[in-house]
């Protein structure tokens, strides 16, 4: 945001000077206020920094250049990840400016897949604690632990994980603190959420990971993972304590286990503003790709037939989001909308007769047995052949599950098959875009869960969209935080989806990607936040006073409150 603004007086407006409580060595140890070699003469004098810094005063851009050279010299991705973590604990502004400058290159290092390696090695790479560590064996101290991070208006955004199901690498115990940290980095980078107003939390319930339990350097509770009543009480005590201490904080649940994720989200979402990225974020970004694909293929939402292969948190989250959108847009019940979606998991097509084998999240999408001829197979090829889907989504982590026979069968029945192999990381993809493109003679509309290079068919180049949650959840969070919404409703999520889908390059050119690139993510986040805030106001959920009703003013109001990595003058 450049130039003066009528909203500069707002508490989150990132303008003017910062009040700094430190001086001397203490100031240089604060990642929030430290400027390193960029402290100007007057601040070196005022804050007693003479003799503590080399004499040459440098700009932030010069610091970024040096830091990038240091980063580039690291021998592998994990070493680069560790370098970035170290920089974050020294100088926050420089860390985010470096990331912003080299976003495309560094994204996979600070997030998936490299962050997964860092989490697996958390206890061995550990240098400095970051975030709030809560343990199930000491539940009476939750408020005391949270008190270390301030109170009241201090915290806007909390990410909490229990570490049971991390980034496709399973139970990582206390190392889950790093996924909470990484998600919050993305909210700052992608949506300008103030880093000083965030709180990463891990709920340490033990671990069932034998490697960690047998590792003498493991830093978490060395006991099997606690479940059942004691677990539920622990989660509840955390939520209640966080709400009491930080009444306006938005709570983002991350990487909870399959049997807990949806259950916990459903328990709290009708009482507080909360979100689960694995369920709702994945659902939103996938639905955005689907809507863009339907626009290109000229298929109406009320007519679409969708198959989801892999019905865990991500698959059922996507199904839920699609059903919500059909229900909201077409004005039919969610139960009716769900009939346009066929979900498959390990036993094949989910049927009501599977009974206890179905998770609570799968039950609404299980089909009546009498819909399916007795004796007919329930495997993916048979379902594709019978359903003739417009959209095929993969969240199965079964590499190569979308075979040539399956894709060709799908392409026989629809003009522009929409195929989304979303399993992460790349080695777990259901099919390669290059193969899908060839098997459909260049007709398929494709989005993937990891980045892929463009593919070519008959001399035409097709760019591949990445279904990256980071284009979606930060903007939703920004809208929720700025509006101080009481709840995050289904309508607000659908508004976010439509705002993201509207940014699709495929709307202008069908050979372009179904989703915008992560490089444009801050602009996308503004559009999503705007849609979320407007919806919160319409639904009577926004609690923030003075939200502008004029579209342009609202955009300015949002931008003024987004944090940018720039050095602000310090005052005592």
- Helicity range of the residues? 40-55%
What is the CA-based Rg, rounded?
Answer: 24 Å
Q: Assembly state here?
A: single chain
Alpha carbon gap, first and last residue:
25 Å
* CATH architecture title of the largest domain: 3-Layer(aba) Sandwich
Number-wise, the strands total: 16
Largest sheet, order of strands side by side?
A: 9-8-7-10-11-12-15
How much of the sequence is in beta strands?
Answer: 5-15%
Within CATH, the superfamily of the largest domain carries the name NAD(P)-binding Rossmann-like Domain
CATH class of the largest domain: Alpha Beta
Q: Could you say what the CATH topology of the largest domain is called?
A: Rossmann fold
- Largest beta-sheet characterization: 7 strands, mixed
Structural class: alpha/beta
Shape: globular
Number of helices: 23
Which stretches are poorly predicted, pLDDT < 50 over at least 5 residues?
Answer: none
Domain Malic enzyme NAD-binding: 279-537
Binding site for (S)-malate: 424, 468
Protein name: Malic enzyme
Active site: 111 (proton donor), 183 (proton acceptor)
Summarize the structure.
This protein is α/β, with parallel strands linked by helices and about 575 residues long.
Kindly describe this structure.
A divalent metal cation binds at residues 254-255, 278. Residues 88-269 form the Malic enzyme N-terminal domain. One of its GO terms (biological process) is amino acid metabolic process. The longest helix has 21 residues, at 277-297. The protein has 572 residues and is α/β, with parallel strands linked by helices. 42% of the residues lie in helices and 10% in strands. Helix 18 (404-413) links the parallel strand 10 and strand 11 (418-421). Strands 9-8-7-10-11-12-15 form a 7-stranded mixed sheet, with helices on both faces. Strands 2-4-3-5-6 form a 5-stranded parallel sheet, sandwiched between helices. The mean pLDDT is 95. The chain has helices at residues 24-28, 41-46, 60-72, 77-90, 92-101, 103-110, 114-120, 122-125, 142-146, 177-191, 210-213, 228-245, 258-268, 277-297, 313-330, 334-338, 380-387, 404-413, 433-439, 473-483, 490-501, 521-538, 551-560, and strands spanning 18-19, 132-135, 157-161, 198-204, 250-254, 274-276, 306-309, 341-345, 348-349, 391-394, 418-421, 445-448, 455-457, 460-462, 465-466, 570-571. It folds into 4 domains: 18-110, Up-down Bundle (Hemocyanin, N-terminal domain), CATH 1.20.1370.30; 114-256, Malic enzyme, N-terminal domain (Rossmann fold), CATH 3.40.50.10380; 280-468, 3-Layer(aba) Sandwich (Rossmann fold), CATH 3.40.50.720; 471-483 and 492-560, no CATH class. It is globular, with a radius of gyration of 24 Å. Helix 14 packs across helix 15. The chain contains 23 helices and 16 strands. The two termini are 25 Å apart.
């Amino acid at each position: 945001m450049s130039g003066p603004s009528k909203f500069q007086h707002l508490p989150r407006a990132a303008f003017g000077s910062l009040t700094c409580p430190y001086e001397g060595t203490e100031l240089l140890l604060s990642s929030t206020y430290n400027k390193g070699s960029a402290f100007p003469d007057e601040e070196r004098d005022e804050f007693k920094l003479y003799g503590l810094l080399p004499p040459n005063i440098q700009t932030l851009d010069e610091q970024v250049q040096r830091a990038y050279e240091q980063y580039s010299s690291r021998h592998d991705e994990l070493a680069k990840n560790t370098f970035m973590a170290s920089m974050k604990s020294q100088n926050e502004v420089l860390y985010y400016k470096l990331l912003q400058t080299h976003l495309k290159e560094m994204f996979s290092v600070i997030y998936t897949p490299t962050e997964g390696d860092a989490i697996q090695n958390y206890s061995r790479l550990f240098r400095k604690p970051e975030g709030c560590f809560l343990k199930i064996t000491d539940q009476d101290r939750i408020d005391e632990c949270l008190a270390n991070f301030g109170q009241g208006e201090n915290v806007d955004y909390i990410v909490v994980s229990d570490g049971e199901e991390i980034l496709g690498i399973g139970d990582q115990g206390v190392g889950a603190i790093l996924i909470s940290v990484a998600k919050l980095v993305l909210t700052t980078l992608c949506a300008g959420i103030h880093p000083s107003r965030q709180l990463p939390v891990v709920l340490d319930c033990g671990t069932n990971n034998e490697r960690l339990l047998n590792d003498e350097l493991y830093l978490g509770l060395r006991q099997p993972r606690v479940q059942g009543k004691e677990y539920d009480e622990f989660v509840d005590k955390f939520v209640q304590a966080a709400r009491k201490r930080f009444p306006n904080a938005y709570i983002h649940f991350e990487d909870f286990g399959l049997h807990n994720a949806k259950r916990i989200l459903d328990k709290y979402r009708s009482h507080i503003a909360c979100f689960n990225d694995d369920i709702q974020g994945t659902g939103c970004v996938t639905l955005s790709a689907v809507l863009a694909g339907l626009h290109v293929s000229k298929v109406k939402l009320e007519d679409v037939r969708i198959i989801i292969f892999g019905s865990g948190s991500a698959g059922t989250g996507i199904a839920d989001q699609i059903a919500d959108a059909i229900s909201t847009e077409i004005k039919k019940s969610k139960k009716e909308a769900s009939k346009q979606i066929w979900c498959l998991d390990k036993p094949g097509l989910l049927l009501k007769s599977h009974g206890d084998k179905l998770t609570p999240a799968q039950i609404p999408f299980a089909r009546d047995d009498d819909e399916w001829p007795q004796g007919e197979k329930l495997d993916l090829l048979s379902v594709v052949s019978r359903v003739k889907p417009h959209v095929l989504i993969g969240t199965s982590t079964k590499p190569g599950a979308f075979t040539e026979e399956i894709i060709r069968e799908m392409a026989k029945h629809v003009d522009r098959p929409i195929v989304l192999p979303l399993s992460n990381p790349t080695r777990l993809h259901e099919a390669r875009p290059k193969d899908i493109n060839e098997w459909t003679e260049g007709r398929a509309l494709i989005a993937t869960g990891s980045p892929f290079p463009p593919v070519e068919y008959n001399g035409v180049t097709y760019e591949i969209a990445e279904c990256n949650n980071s284009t979606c959840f930060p903007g939703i969070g920004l809208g929720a935080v700025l509006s101080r919404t009481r709840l995050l409703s289904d309508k607000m999520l659908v508004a976010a989806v439509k705002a993201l889908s509207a940014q699709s390059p495929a709307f202008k050119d069908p050979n372009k990607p179904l989703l915008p690139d992560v490089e444009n993510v801050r602009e996308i986040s503004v559009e999503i936040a705007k849609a979320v805030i407007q919806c919160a106001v319409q639904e009577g959920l926004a609690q923030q006073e003075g939200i502008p009703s004029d579209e342009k003013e609202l955009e300015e109001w949002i931008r003024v409150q987004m944090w940018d990595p720039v050095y602000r003058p310090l005052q005592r």
